[in-house]
Amino acid sequence: MKILITGANGMLAKSVIKRLDNGNELILTDVEDLDITNEIDVTNFIQEKKPQYIINCAAYTAVDKAEEVYDLADKINGDGPKNLAKAAKMVDATLIHISTDYVFDGDLDVSKFYTEEDKVGPVTVYGKTKLHGEEQVKNNTDKYYIFRTAWLYGNGNNFVRTMLKLGKEKEELSVVSDQHGSPTYAEDLANIIGESIEKKIPYGLYHSTNQGFTTWYEFTKKIFELANIDCKLKPVTSEEFVRPAKRPKNSQLSKDKLLSYGINIPNWEDGLKRYLEIELN
Ligand SMILES: NC(=O)c1ccc[n+]([C@@H]2O[C@H](COP(=O)([O-])OP(=O)(O)OC[C@H]3O[C@@H](n4cnc5c(N)ncnc54)[C@H](OP(=O)(O)O)[C@@H]3O)[C@@H](O)[C@H]2O)c1
Predict the structure, then answer these.
(1) Rounded CA separation 279/125 (Å)
(2) Model confidence, pTM
(3) 136 lies in which domain range?
(4) Is the distance from the beta carbon of residue 10 to the nearest atom of ligand 1 less than 6 Å?
(5) In the prediction, which pLDDT does 40 show?
(6) Is the CB of 193 under 6 A from ligand 1?
(7) In the chain, which residues have pLDDT < 70?
């Protein structure tokens, strides 16, 4: 299959490339080769290459900085997917787009989790622009998958890497204990994408994190336990750890829809163990 991957230098893209590099013809582009915000370039490139699948791993992902640069973030997260969706339709390609738990306000009681049918209501610039991207995909093509993920880590700067570094440097660390979600290994999300293509599951929107739920505090505890790091951890509230962009307290996404199509979704602890085997060696 001919597959175009945008944002190919990004963290998720690296895992997607690895997962799909098994007989497929991969066309890899990052912003220097194909700026997804440039409608004419996107149209021409896709009409020339005629991929069967387009996987959009490009995004503006600096959640806090986005609060100050709405237009830029929206151009990349909103207009970019629109350009890709329109061009995908012209060549009858399937568009695979990645979205986020930040499309929700996160105020749902933590005894519950969000399904694909739940009402969205982003409260951050990042979340608003990512929701705009989802809408543009849905409005401009029928052949699409939108995979909403959260708490992603993999081959790039990420929370686990930061905690491993800080844990070795400091005696005590404060970590937020009232935000709930599923840490998601990029390799596992890449596999969800790969299996969805191979199993030809119905087009549409899918919640796509690792299985199981935890908090950033408990996640860090597990990282330190598995990496044998002796650093004291102090649980703190979101109110004690204010950031420019408000973090959702509930980022728990139900994966029942994906599971109903037989997609393999490992537990977050399992993903973390596999990641650390690579990261620590
Ligand atoms: N990381 C998370 O925790 C998380 C959570 C939920 C959802 N997601 C979503 O998952 C997807 C992948 O995230 P990630 O963490 O892999 O992102 P990432 O590492 O930041 O990669 C994004 C890539 O997009 C490129 N890019 C930026 N603007 C572009 C443009 N105009 N045209 C083409 N490429 C452009 C970036 O290039 P430069 O680096 O040169 O700018 C970068 O290589 C995104 O859609 C993100 O919103 C991520």
Answers:
(1) 32
(2) 0.98
(3) 2-157+182-211+251-266
(4) yes
(5) 98
(6) no
(7) none
